[in-house]
Write a structure and sequence with these properties.
about 130 residues, alpha/beta, Rossmann fold, 4 helices, elongated
Length: about 130
């Protein structure tokens, strides 16, 4: 089966490389969106899409995790999902301290709120204005 997931780290060059691979390997499949792990990889993905003549968001939507202040200045402005990094760190420290104190309970699922900042790159503004 075709694998659309392209694992990469967080540099823009890796986002560009992964997106180029995705476009080259699609073999006629319609890809309508790219979700990146960081705003930096999204920057590379945007560049690869631009270089390939793929219009964002008209032909391809893009969303990233991160919420970097630079996201609103990208072209087009990047839709982001902001993770609560401080709360993640606090929860991780709490779990670690619990383990150190002898807690042997099974794994716990901890849900933390995220924030979606909708900008042009996801195409929502195009659909909303139509």
């Amino acid at each position: 089966p075709w694998e659309a997931i392209r694992p990469r780290a967080e540099r823009s060059e890796e986002g560009m490389e992964a997106t180029r691979e995705l476009l080259a390997d699609r073999e006629g499949r319609e890809i309508t969106a790219v979700l990146t792990a960081t705003d930096s990889t999204a920057m590379g993905a945007l560049r690869a899409l631009y270089d390939a003549g793929v219009k964002v968001p008209e032909q391809m939507a893009i969303v990233s995790f991160g919420g970097a202040f630079t996201a609103e200045y990208m072209q087009p402005p990047l839709t982001t999902i902001t993770l609560p990094m401080r709360a993640i760190g606090e929860q991780a420290a709490r779990l670690l301290l619990d383990r150190i104190d002898g807690d042997t309970s099974p794994h716990r699922n901890i849900l933390l709120p995220t924030e979606l900042t909708v900008r042009v790159s996801c195409g929502a503004t195009l659909r909303d204005s139509a």
